[in-house]
Amino acid sequence: MDCQEVCRFLQVYLDGEFDEDDRRDVEAHLATCAACRARAEYERRFREAIRARIPKPAAPEAFRARLVQAMRGHRDRSSFPRRLVWSSVPAAAVLALVVTFTWTVTSGFSPMVDEAISRHSTETPVEVNTASSDEVEGWFRAKVDFNVALPRFSSRRLSLVGARLSHMAERQAALVRYRQGLRRYSLLVTADRGEAMEGQRCQRVEQHELCLTERRGYSVVFWRSRGLVYSMVGDTGASDLLEVLHSALARGEPLAP
Amino acid sequence: MFFSKGKKAERRAVFEEQMLEHLDALYGTALRMTADRATAEDLVQDTYLRALRFRHKFEPGTNLRAWMFRMMVNLHINKCRRERRGRQIHEGLERHDMAERVLPSEKMAPTRRPEEYFFERMMSDDVARALDALPRDFKMVVLLADINGFRYSQIAEILNIPVGTVMSRLHRGRRLLRESLHAFAIEEGYIKPTEGETADLEAFRRSKQDREVG
Q1: How confident is the model at residue A55, as a pLDDT?
Q2: What is the per-residue pLDDT for B12?
Q3: pLDDT for position A14
Q4: Nearest chain A Cα distance for residue B116, angstroms
Q5: Which of B15, B16, B202, B212 to mutate to test the interface with A (most CBs of A within 10 A)?
Q6: Cβ–Cβ of B23/A64 closer than 8 Å?
């Protein structure tokens, strides 16, 4: 091999892609040619420098945990009827809950619904980035004039993304973002001023009155608890949103602790 | 029957565990591909769920990491395509084709002075910035070869391109990377441009070498 050939194939040689014969040819040339040796050294050091300096972040622990959960959920979904997978409670209890879910229809006028959808669909960044409900509750403590308490959802793939300050019906609101695969959910929590609950259909489930509206491809559920009004919005149909709420209810946990 | 079900579950658990061994590599690459943590996490999660769904298509004994990378790259490309269609923007591919056309033929930068090892004084951030600035096609081969240590044939399979294309993209990608790092190095004062030399030092060297060789 001459200098020109070595120059042309130097990268291939350094990448370890040459077979034994070609490799020996290159090395024989390098042993006698200082210029090509310097070139090879330059290339080798460049590659090493890049390799050593490219950040190689490990996957965050919270993400790893979510991923493992998601894989487990995927496993369950593929081996059980879909309706029964979102919770680990006995099937009978889940069925009872589903069966008692019949709705009463109320008035369709609902400016709060539009506001909730607007807060959900606007891609505002979160101000606190954490997957922990406790941390989110703590973060809001000195920032709003009510005590934010979040439901503990147990739906396998639902994960908390973070939260930010927001507003709703001209008062402060805690906006909490969740994600389930590609789906996004937002929970707005505000102080309860005793207005009538809005929704196309309302239903009492356990100790909560849930009011549901589907609009422009979003679903919104309102409920109130201990002096707070909650609105949960999802860019999904009502059944998916309710499944998420079920996941808290089915464990016997209130929608607001 | 119960026995075979138990065996199946066990095989699946082993497969899941093997897949998780490659999580950091996939996540790190996804971060560089998407430049956004949430999108990278979505991409990696979708890759794992898809890999689980199609695990019967994985041939035992072949490289699981390469198989998963291929899945991730395909998911990402499909997603980008969907988004591009949605927004009616076509800048991506065309720009890369252009970059490939206007680049001069492969030449090595000769080395003369110790400061030419300027890259050894660069910071991680500079390298990440330079890599992120590469056209996507070049960035992918550099990521796969230099960061993840895949062989040409594996990269060809992951990206579904011929081995020759892997080689040319890799060599040009590395050179583009070196050129932008060199520009950063001058910009940030790691090295001083000497008289007659501007930030386009590499271009100067190339033309000089062209004269020497030609």
Answers
A1: 82
A2: 86
A3: 92
A4: 8
A5: B16
A6: yes
Largest alpha-carbon pair distance within chain B? 81
A30-39, A87-96, A133-142, B23-32 — which is least confidently predicted? A87-96
The domains found in chain A, sorted by start residue, are 3-53 (no CATH), 86-249 (3.30.200.100)
In this prediction, residue A76 carries a pLDDT of 55
CA atoms lying within 13 Å on the CB side of residue A104: 9
Give pLDDT < 70 ranges for chain B: 1-5, 84-115, 193-214
- With 0-12 / 13-18 / 19 or more C-beta atoms within 10 angstroms meaning exposed / middle / buried, residue A63 is buried
C-beta atoms of B151 and A17 within 8 A? yes
Helices (H) and strands (E) in chain A, counts: 8, 8
What is the rounded distance in angstroms from the CA atom of residue B70 to the CA atom of residue B168?
Answer: 20
Strands in A104-105's sheet, in edge-to-edge order, are A104-105, A201-205, A208-215, A218-225, A228-234, A183-191, A171-180, A158-168
Test A67 with B23 for CB contact under 8 angstroms.
Answer: yes
Set out the domains of chain B in order of their start, with CATH numbers: 2-89 (1.10.1740.10), 99-213 (1.10.10.10)
Residues of chain A positioned with their CB less than 8 A from the CB of B121: none
pLDDT of residue A193: 81
Overall pTM surpassing 0.80 (yes/no) = no
The verdict on A45 touching B (C-beta cutoff 8 Å) is yes
* Contact criterion met (CB below 8 Å) for B107 and B200: no
Report the residue from A55, A74, A181 with minimal CB separation from B128. Answer: A55
**CB contacts < 8 A (A, B):** 111
ipTM of the complex: 0.75
Which residue, B175, B24, B165, is CA-closest to A58?
B24
Answer yes or no: is pLDDT of A81 > 60. Answer: no
Question: Within the 17-36 window of chain B, which residues sit less than 8 Å (CB to CB) from chain A?
Answer: 20, 23-24, 27-28, 31-32
Q: Measured between CB atoms, which of B120, B151, B213 is closest to A45?
A: B120
**Do A56 and B24 make contact, defined as CB atoms within 8 angstroms?**
yes
Residue A104 pLDDT greater than 60, yes or no: no
**What pLDDT score does B95 carry?**
41
